[in-house]
Design goal:
Helices cover 49% and strands 13% of the residues. By secondary structure, it is α/β, with parallel strands linked by helices. Helix 8 packs across helix 9 and helix 8 packs across helix 10. The mean pLDDT is 96.
């Protein structure tokens, strides 16, 4: 039996809608917080047994249909030779931003051995899951990761990025080419280790106009999405104006954030692709009646069509109750059976 998520990505007939949550592993779980009291983020991510345990925690608790590997979008660039510090409440901080051709030239494209701890964790997770549950490998979008490298830290304006794109496009293209080469190898290695699906997280791509997206981001996202021989999910936030271009760039399933109604987003993506989403993560901080209504709205807009994967419109917020996630996953499993009957 193939995983339910894989079959959904291929738009095959299903008995119900698959459900999992972005950032389901991590701060919303007390068992994760207990691990972090003893180990740093990089210790957890770099120790296969710990990484596998943290990845499996939400699957055991919530009964979701996929385990998304516990890693960071900056994991592969650390292997490229950059010093990255993950600051709690801030995000990735790059000690030496990448802004010149010499900076790009210093980056190395690592081989699969550089990712050995994650790959071993994937093998451990795959061995623990039931056949119908999927391992989701993931990778940051080249644009989003380049944003951190050029800015040196999280940014809302991306002024340094856009200055580089417009004023020195040769350096930008060189950086994106090197990142996409690295990420293509990274996702292929994850698949070889046992990942059933790969999701590309382009969290900051919504800062671009459709024209700039097609010129400065899409070709390199397309390169990464074409690399693995398993279904792919292409996700970004703030992408209501980019959905058609994202679909052109690739992905068997296009992830929708909460800012666009699911049926409208699916229309823009095209019926030949699946969609994933898209409850606002903040709704899960409210009363159950509102959560239930939001989930029902998403399922009604999906209308049981082939290719829908239930998820949030972004990652689980740290303050979310683990019990709410368990209850929501159960609601989706039970409610969607009638629409697929």
């Amino acid at each position: 039996m193939e995983p339910l998520l894989v079959r959904a990505a291929r738009r095959e007939p299903l008995e119900r809608t698959p459900v999992w949550f972005m950032r389901q592993a991590g701060r919303s779980l007390p068992e994760y917080r207990a691990v972090r009291e003893r180990h740093s983020f990089w210790e957890v991510a770099g120790t296969p047994e710990l990484c596998a345990e943290v990845t499996l925690q939400p699957v055991r608790r919530h009964g979701v249909d996929a385990a998304v590997m516990f890693a960071d979008i900056m994991t592969p660039v650390v292997a490229m030779g950059l010093e990255v510090d993950l600051v709690e409440g801030v995000g990735p901080i790059v000690a030496a931003p990448v802004r010149t051709l010499a900076d790009v030239d210093r980056l190395r494209v690592p081989d699969g051995e550089a990712f050995a701890p994650l790959l071993e964790a994937i093998r451990l997770v795959r061995a623990e899951l039931a056949p119908e549950q999927a391992v989701v490998g993931f990778c940051g979008g080249p644009f989003t990761v380049a944003g951190y490298l050029v800015e040196g830290r999280p940014s809302r304006e991306f002024a340094s990025v856009k200055r580089l794109m417009y004023a020195d496009p040769a350096v930008w293209r060189a950086l994106m080419a090197k990142l996409s080469d690295c990420f293509a190898g990274y996702v292929r290695a994850q698949v070889a280790a046992g990942a059933d699906v790969v999701q590309l997280f382009d969290s900051w791509v919504g800062t671009l106009s459709p024209t700039d997206y097609r010129e400065f981001a899409a070709p390199w996202s397309a390169r990464v999405l074409a690399a693995p021989d398993v279904p792919t999910i292409h996700f970004g936030t703030g992408t209501a104006t980019l959905l058609e271009a994202m679909a052109e760039a690739g992905g068997d399933v296009i992830g929708l954030d909460w800012r666009v109604p699911l049926d409208e987003g699916w229309r823009l993506v095209g019926t030949e692709r699946g969609v994933q989403g898209n409850v606002d993560p903040a709704v899960l901080l409210g009363p159950w009646e509102r959560i239930e209504a939001a989930a029902a709205d998403v399922l009604a807009r999906a209308a049981g069509r082939r290719g829908h994967v239930f998820n949030l419109g972004h990652g689980v917020l740290p303050g979310t109750s683990a019990g709410v996630l368990t209850r929501l996953a159960e609601l989706v499993r039970e409610s969607s059976r009638s629409t697929h009957a």
